[in-house]
Amino acid sequence: MSKEKEKKLVEAITPMDEDFAQWYTDVVKKAELVDYASVRGCMVIRPYGYAIWENIQKNLDAMFKETGHENVYMPMFIPESLLQKEADHVEGFAPEVAWVTHGGNQELTERLCVRPTSETLFCDHYSKIIQSYKDLPKLYNQWCSVVRWEKTTRPFLRTTEFLWQEGHTAHATAEEAQEETIKMLNVYARLCEEYLAIPVVKGRKTDKEKFAGAEATYTIESLMHDGKALQCGTSHNFGDGFAKAFNIQYADKNGKLQYVHQTSWGMTTRLIGALIMVHGDDSGLVLPPKIAPTQLMIIPIAQHKAGVLEKAAEIKDTLSKVARVKMDNSDKMPGWKFSEYEMKGIPLRLEIGPKDIENNQAVLVRRDNREKIVVSLEELESKVPEILEDIQRSLLEKARTAQITKTSIAANMEEFNKILDSKLGFVKAMWCGDRACEDSIKEAAGATSRCMPFEQESVADTCVCCGKPAKKLVYWGRAY
Amino acid sequence: MSKEKEKKLVEAITPMDEDFAQWYTDVVKKAELVDYASVRGCMVIRPYGYAIWENIQKNLDAMFKETGHENVYMPMFIPESLLQKEADHVEGFAPEVAWVTHGGNQELTERLCVRPTSETLFCDHYSKIIQSYKDLPKLYNQWCSVVRWEKTTRPFLRTTEFLWQEGHTAHATAEEAQEETIKMLNVYARLCEEYLAIPVVKGRKTDKEKFAGAEATYTIESLMHDGKALQCGTSHNFGDGFAKAFNIQYADKNGKLQYVHQTSWGMTTRLIGALIMVHGDDSGLVLPPKIAPTQLMIIPIAQHKAGVLEKAAEIKDTLSKVARVKMDNSDKMPGWKFSEYEMKGIPLRLEIGPKDIENNQAVLVRRDNREKIVVSLEELESKVPEILEDIQRSLLEKARTAQITKTSIAANMEEFNKILDSKLGFVKAMWCGDRACEDSIKEAAGATSRCMPFEQESVADTCVCCGKPAKKLVYWGRAY
User: Fold this and answer.
1) Domain for residue A401, yes or no?
2) Could you identify which of A190, A236, A251, B215 might form a hypothetical disulfide with A214, taking C-beta atoms 3.0 to 4.6 angstroms apart as the criterion?
3) In this complex, do B35 and A99 lie within 8 Å of one another by their Cβ atoms?
4) Are A205 and A121 part of one and the same domain?
5) What CATH number is attached to the domain comprising B102?
């Protein structure tokens, strides 16, 4: 391939500052994460995108098991009558579900919806298997796909079908349910910060923004590079609302029947969208080492020269003990390979050519800050894990700094609008607790309440919107 | 719990010789593998059933990755027009699919079927991403659920929705596609024999029994305890039929356009049904150690006595290094625990009580043959893995013997019917190659051709049905 063609490949992404949405679409396609499918709003998750999901899944699933949860599988269909059992829930979901009306060549006597979420199925099952306090708690999780008939869709961020996990638990007491709700929110926060290097704000959703059927919804919110907010995961406390609708009762130690208290919590493939928009740059994806399918790519230089491929293979064997390593010895030009793996966000590149071999060294290039590090061959095995750890730490730090920079305080709507007009980001502002003010902020500034953070401060005495006495600090923002 | 009640629990399973179908249903329910769902023919896979599936998945997925396959995810919906692109395929599947006709509150302009299998989606994707010989082979796999609108259903064996994996590959040449087809059949056979301890017969399906759209279907067939056959996995060579229907072409080294050659292969949750029906007995499930979620269950005896629980916990810690171990120190009576874990098919039970501690020993009880083995505490760590390996080996051996015992040879239809009337099992008999004979054997004996085994022998000169010259040895049987 000619130098010019190679250059074109690199230039083919829209710069983020020019058109962030187009940049996102370009990265998603060029890094070969997804392809569009023949069904509106659905995506084909390609091997590289799916490998990222597998890593997210593996780490999250291990945390679920550590905290005593078990995986199960519920049917993908929900009979219409079952979906209707909890009033708020059906009101929230019925308008956006896909309906199966025919099976084989027969019209069904009752329509089935493709699960948009599975509370109703878990409740139906729990009502059959829970009899005594000895059966509690039930700590179940399910990995599956769900369908919500969205009007406008974007890969990973909002798709008609998406992959997720949904935890559903049943407890003897309200206290235990609340403890579980917060415990799983913390598991989510840990996944985001420790593995995805995405800092999050933890808090509670307002009643307007809570899950259909929940008593309280908790959320972790993050900021993307363009200053828009993204909800990364939610955890819901249902109280005994579903238990009453589905008659899930247990006999307590005195033989008295009690309703269970339930929770649910979910995280989705949208996290891959967050990874792209928090860490990516104009050369493409940037992946945190802990979640990268390949952590280090070896690129032999002048590989036709004697000894180069042998040495590269030797290095690959050595480094495979300490990292996820691949080598590209295809006949593409090194420059082309550099661009390709930068686009794919591989954290570290190792270059090894005849001169390096002569000098008993290799060149490492970090994806995050492009730093070149010359390392002697003996030191590679100890240096690579250190550098990977440093990349992981730096990415989180950089994202945390960006989040702080993009977080502002507003005392009134004038300040509020000024912030969102100039740079977007989180706006911290006081709220009186009235739905009317939330509606009016959405109307005026296009911003929604992201959460009432656990770490409450008083940044003003009065509601940013109506001027009445303030009750809560709220994070506001325009959101994906 | 009283002794009598405990006895009842054990007796509550129908003996297999009395009513095999009822025995199966009893095991599936009492071992807590599944629960019935509110949707006809669908199942709730409970934690214990799902943990078995996770073990199957983990081992099979590792073999896929070893052989160079990558996981992807395709949408669960197929537009009707896409399903119709390959004529044989649509004819085979259209009568048994579920149709989505409404999304949100709108009627769709084109019906979508819920995938019964995903050839059409993979082909659609391949037609977009394959351009050159450099893009080949594509070795993709997907873990998901599929839906087929079955009339009569049974947990694991035949359900409206089931979990599976489906591999879909594209190759430059017919030879490579054929090699892949057989390679993956061998992977399946290895999973069955090495992990599930289920011996299989490998062979090719007749044209009547092959997959809709395939040039050739290969299968692994096993025999259940009742003598009925079960297809455990299939691997299909599509030739270039789908490539022509979906226009999947690549430029070869000379720049000439060529059609790709494709394969697909699948294994499902039905394997759990096979595990039950090959190894189970009148006390319930019997699991091969390699696939058992828990390999050894520790049951403290007289656990209120000083030192018992401490010693049991100590043993648990030691054995956890060499096996998947759990301890049940609940307040149920030991006899009840014995029955429960026999029902769940846990390969080994360890009993430890005050007298054992005095004698510095523990009692191991094998699930497969009920052998009691007294082992000194020092030897436990080395003995347990040995015994687990022996159980794994014995189960395969026992199943192999059963299969040989239940395999007979028939030279004519009189012998054929006599065999199936007396004991069921595989009938080895010659076939002329005519569809008419297959149909007539099905009519007369209720048996289908299971496969033309790779290991061909000549057990007669003439077709078992029509008496014309024989072309192939076929395994016949009544099947699930």
Assistant:
1) no
2) A236
3) no
4) yes
5) 3.30.930.10
- Residue B104 placed within a domain: yes
Segments in chain B below pLDDT 70? 1-11
Domain boundary among B279, B312, B344: B279
Same domain, B467 and B381: no
Question: Residue A114 has what DSSP assignment?
Answer: E
Contacts across the A-B interface (CB distance below 8 Å): 148
Query: Is A76 close to B76, i.e. CB distance below 8 A?
Result: yes
Q: Which domain holds residue B353?
A: 296-387
Cα–Cα dist A349/A367, whole Å: 7
Contact residues, chain B, for A51 at CB < 8 Å: 70-71
Contacts of A38 in chain B (CB under 8 A): 75, 78-79, 82, 121, 124
Q: State the pTM of this model.
A: 0.96
Asked whether residue B180 falls in the same domain as residue B323, the answer is no
A332 Cα to chain B: minimum distance (Å): 12
Q: How far is B44 from chain A (nearest CA, A)?
A: 5
Q: Is residue A398 part of a domain?
A: no
Please enumerate in sequence order all residues whose Cβ is within 8 A of that of A317, keeping only pairs 6 or more positions apart, or say none: none
Task: Note the pLDDT tens digit of each residue in A421-462.
Answer: 888 899 999 999 999 999 999 998 899 999 999 999 999 999
Same domain as B437, residue B354: no
User: B356-402, pLDDT tens digit by residue?
Assistant: 999 999 999 999 999 999 999 999 999 999 999 999 999 999 999 99
* Span B108-127, pLDDT tens digits: 999 999 999 999 999 999 99
Q: Into how many domains does chain B fold?
A: 3
Domain assignment present for A470: yes
ipTM of the complex: 0.95
A324: nearest Cα among A288, A300, A294: A294
Q: According to the model, what pLDDT value does residue A94 have? A: 86
3-state secondary structure of A429: strand
d(CA B398, CA B387): 16
The set of residues, in sequence order, having a beta carbon less than 8 Å from that of A109 and lying 6+ positions away, is none
Q: Which residues of A fall within a CB distance of 8 Å from B53?
A: 73
